[in-house]
Amino acid sequence: MKTATRLVILLLLMVTVASAGKRDPLTEAEADQIRHAALEPQTRLKLYIKFTDARLASIETLRSTPQPAADRGRKIHDLLEDFTTLLDEISDNLDAYQGRPLTKDDRKDFRKGVKAVMEACDQWDGKMKALQSALETDPGLKKDYPDFRFVLQDAEDSLKSTAEMAREYSEYKDVDEKSEKKK
Fold first, then answer.
1. Is residue 41 part of a domain?
2. Residue 129's domain spans which residues?
């Protein structure tokens, strides 16, 4: 019995430690904004776009600082992880709102949100390409590259996936919309 109790305590301790190590990409204020927009797909998507933009702007600031911090590579790593997590949230929101029945007005708002995601993905792609180019021309950034090499690839893959999903959803016509056009 003592062994089982110890195992349970050890397992709970391991789960607690593992969950404590996971970073939340949103600040408390950002999380509150998302909670307040829970039932508004377009607003929610725009907030995620805004927060994702902020992460890329921070990467750009770190990249272009004349006197980079000693832990610049690690900071870029963390920001790219946040970027990827936020892209995943955008994709999850697209899936969630696409799969549920929407009124005509909600559908119109959702399409505006999808359009905003597509435009943002195009801008983010340009910024990611600029970061890749900087790796070739900035020796300091090249030195920091091993710190964020793998998360950069993950971020690029996630961006590509989110952009493809948004484009697919922008072309989607649901049954209600088709029947409305026939009337």
1. no
2. 46-63+70-182
Q: What is the DSSP string of the chain?
A: -HHHHHHHHHHHHHHHHHHHTSPPSS-HHHHHHHHHTTT-HHHHHHHHHHHHHHHHHHHHHHHH-SS--TTHHHHHHHHHHHHHHHHHHHHHHHHHHHSS---HHHHHHHHHHHHHHHHHHHHHHHHHHHHHHHHHH-HHHHHHHHHHHHHHHHHHHHHHHHHHHHHHHHH---HHHHHHHH-
Instruction: Give me the number of domains the chain comprises.
Output: 1
Q: ∠ CA(19), CA(78), CA(117), 5° rounding?
A: 100
The answer to whether residue 12 is domain-embedded is: no
pLDDT for position 5: 47
Tokens at residue 101, please? Answer: 């029945």
Residue partners of 2: CB distance under 8 A and separation at least 6: none
Q: What is the pLDDT of residues 10-56, one digit of tens each?
A: 444 444 444 445 678 888 999 899 999 887 878 889 999 999 999 99
Tell me which amino acid residue 159 is: L
Residue 90 lies in a domain: yes
The verdict on residue 132 lying in a domain is yes
